[in-house]
């Protein structure tokens, strides 16, 4: 109950000592204010625990920052040491995190084998039986619409949230959003979901719609499986394959739905991923050619330790979508080496891919530059 009782995804700081009681009698160990720690990382300082304005998954993430960073969401905690030697373990710098993953022996697939593999990701048209559940016009900038569609597998349906600008009468360009890890773990109620949490209001202000499908494993469709990193690798591999197929179908149906609506431009659909949404779900870019371009925030592509048929070695070089990648130089979660490998491995022509590192950690990115680069990329394509 630590995270639900802590101050996350909020608009202001709360008085300390009131929220987030931890197992050792301390309050506010996560949320409220990011706290400086004694260790250094990459020659700079590090904050941990997340802040009131952060999504809840930042509770488990480190955020390297220059020591002179004076953000209003930074804070520190004082402690009385029983012995000066208690500080000794914290003199060592924190090492960069590199996820080695499972080592799966395989060889890169030939084009013939890959074509056979790809057949499992083919999607047949169906009657979506789309049902608009409500339209909420309470926000000053956008109309929030919740739509439900049929998927055609496991008797499943999927909700799609659409945030479209008010007083817009021309067919809309659409940006399909893939969120961070908190939406796979402890998402808010779907009717409380807002693009404001990720600062995406600038997309609506630009005259475009943000389309947010509840992909398998997110929002009100969380995974029911109890698999962990210690589960047998065969079970993990099967789950990864099934998830990739489900995401492929979910994405295809979402774009099918948008293309049925006369108020949307059928030829202007873009991919936007943030953190986790810029990693594994990029597998859908391989098969979904209707995306005009993609923007990846603080991502690094599908891990290179998945089953061979889903692994980055096999599918990243075959992605041809124009891609903009915006990353943090001091990102502890997605190391720079992994980001550069994904970028270099992309099959996208060099003139249609771009990688920018900001002087930041995992999240947030410098907002003004993020907005400028994102809108510039969308307008280019």
Mind explaining what this structure looks like?
This protein has helices at 111-118, 182-185, 201-205, 233-260, 312-315, 336-345, 367-380; strands at residues 34-36, 45-48, 62-65, 74-75, 131-136, 142-150, 157-165, 172-178, 209-213, 264-274, 291-297, 323-328, 353-358. It folds into two domains: 1-95, no CATH class; 111-380, Rossmann fold. By secondary structure, it is α/β, with parallel strands linked by helices. A nine-stranded mixed beta sheet has the order 5-6-7-9-8-10-11-12-13, with helices on both faces. The longest helix is centred in the middle third of the chain and has 28 residues, at 233-260. InterPro entries: AB_hydrolase_fold, CTDL_fold, Dienelactn_hydro, SUMF_sf. This is Dienelactone hydrolase domain-containing protein.
Short account of what is shown:
One of its GO terms (molecular function) is hydrolase activity. The protein has helices at 111-118, 182-185, 201-205, 233-260, 312-315, 336-345, 367-380, and strands at residues 34-36, 45-48, 62-65, 74-75, 131-136, 142-150, 157-165, 172-178, 209-213, 264-274, 291-297, 323-328, 353-358.
């Amino acid at each position: 109950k630590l995270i639900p009782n802590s101050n996350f995804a909020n608009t202001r700081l709360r008085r300390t000592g009131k929220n987030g009681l931890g197992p050792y009698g301390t309050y506010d160990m996560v949320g409220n204010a990011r706290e400086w720690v004694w260790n250094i990382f990459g020659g700079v300082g590090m904050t941990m625990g997340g802040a009131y304005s952060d999504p809840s998954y930042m509770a488990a993430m480190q955020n390297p920052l220059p020591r002179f960073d004076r953000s209003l969401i930074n804070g520190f905690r004082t402690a009385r040491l029983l012995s000066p030697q208690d500080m000794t373990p914290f003199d060592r710098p924190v090492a960069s995190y590199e996820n080695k993953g499972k080592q799966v022996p395989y060889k890169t697939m030939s084009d013939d084998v890959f074509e056979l593999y790809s057949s499992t990701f083919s999607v047949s048209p169906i009657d979506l039986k789309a049902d608009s559940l409500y339209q909420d016009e309470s926000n000053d900038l956008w109309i929030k619409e919740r739509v439900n569609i049929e998927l055609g597998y496991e008797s499943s349906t999927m909700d799609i949230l659409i945030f479209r600008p008010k007083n817009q009468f021309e067919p809309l360009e659409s940006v399909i959003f893939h969120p961070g890890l908190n939406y796979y773990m402890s998402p808010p109620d779907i009717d409380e979901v807002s693009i404001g949490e990720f600062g995406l209001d600038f997309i609506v202000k630009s005259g475009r719609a943000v389309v947010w499908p509840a992909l398998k494993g997110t929002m009100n469709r969380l995974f029911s499986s109890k698999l962990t990193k210690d589960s047998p690798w065969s079970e993990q591999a099967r789950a990864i394959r099934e998830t990739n197929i489900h995401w492929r179908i979910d994405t295809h149906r979402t774009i099918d739905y948008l293309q049925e609506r006369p108020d949307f431009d059928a030829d202007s659909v873009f991919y936007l991923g943030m953190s986790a949404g810029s990693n594994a779900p990029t597998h859908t870019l391989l098969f979904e050619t209707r995306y005009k371009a993609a923007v990846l925030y603080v991502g690094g592509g599908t891990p290179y330790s998945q089953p061979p048929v889903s692994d980055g070695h096999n599918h990243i070089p075959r992605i041809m979508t124009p891609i903009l990648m915006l990353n943090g130089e001091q990102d502890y979660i997605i190391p720079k080496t992994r980001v550069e490998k994904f970028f270099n491995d992309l099959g996208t022509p060099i003139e249609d891919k771009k990688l920018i590192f900001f002087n930041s950690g995992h999240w947030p990115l410098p907002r003004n530059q993020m907005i400028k680069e994102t809108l510039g990329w969308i307008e280019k394509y």
